[in-house]
Design a protein that fits this description.
Layout lengths: L4 H14 L9 H25 L5 H22 L3 H24 L8 H23 L11 H20 L2 H4 L4 H27 L9
Helix pairs in contact: 1-2, 1-8, 2-3, 3-4, 3-5, 4-5, 5-6, 6-8
Length: 214
């Protein structure tokens, strides 16, 4: 079985990030982001290879999705302006790994995906993204959204986690469904991933200017 198409889009987003990480005006969260995406690509490739060999990947994705949510909480905290909201997000960063860790340990023997805490992570990421958009609406000055990296990142995260929540939130139940339905859900997830990483690539390139030589 060939490598999933969306992994190529992760590489595209990594290469896009490599173009801007050394520019002086690049925010810190943008500089760190490509390295996290490189880790994402590595995990996805390992997961793909394990699946091809009929090995169980539940623990791999349990651990990675927990780290993934912690990273997104941190990154979103960098673009939120309100101090109270930033403190609340910091609380999420500290508390979420504890709650998710307990959930993972509870289902370790049964190789169960941590669907409850994954659903919680989806809700929190979506809520923070919505709060970011609300902050944009009340800014006293205009912002060019097309050239705002955080806008593209939050748009991708909000859409992905809002749409994938019903799938991953009930993944332990969906495994009992017919193979045809599981394949169709897999296609939907691939499309959601492609859109997510495409928007990440745009977030890197939206401020990039190509210098014209005479």
């Amino acid at each position: 079985m060939g490598m999933p198409v969306y992994i190529y889009f992760i590489f595209v987003s990594i290469l896009s990030g490599a173009l801007v990480i050394f520019r002086k005006e690049t925010p810190m969260y943008i500089r760190v982001f490509p390295f996290f995406l490189a880790l994402t690509a590595l995990v996805e490739i390992i997961g793909w290879q394990l699946s091809d060999n009929n090995a169980n990947t539940t623990l791999l994705y349990n651990v990675f999705t927990t780290l993934e949510f912690i990273f997104y909480f941190w990154m979103l905290r960098q673009v939120i302006r309100q101090k109270v909201a930033r403190r609340i997000i910091l609380f999420f960063i500290l508390l979420y790994p504890v709650v998710a860790g307990l959930d993972i340990l509870r289902g370790l023997s049964a190789h169960r995906f941590h669907s409850e805490t994954y659903a919680l992570g989806c809700f929190l990421v979506a809520a923070i993204c919505i709060f970011y958009f609300l902050e944009l609406f009340v800014l006293p000055h205009s912002v060019s959204l097309v050239r705002e990296p955080a806008f593209w990142i939050c748009s991708g995260l909000l859409f992905f986690y809002s749409c994938s929540f019903p799938i991953f939130g009930y993944v332990n139940f969906l495994n009992r469904l017919p193979v045809v339905i599981q394949l169709n859900l897999g296609v939907i997830l691939d499309l959601l991933n492609i859109l997510l990483y495409s928007l990440f690539a745009i977030s890197f390139l939206c401020r990039y200017k190509v210098r014209k030589s005479i």
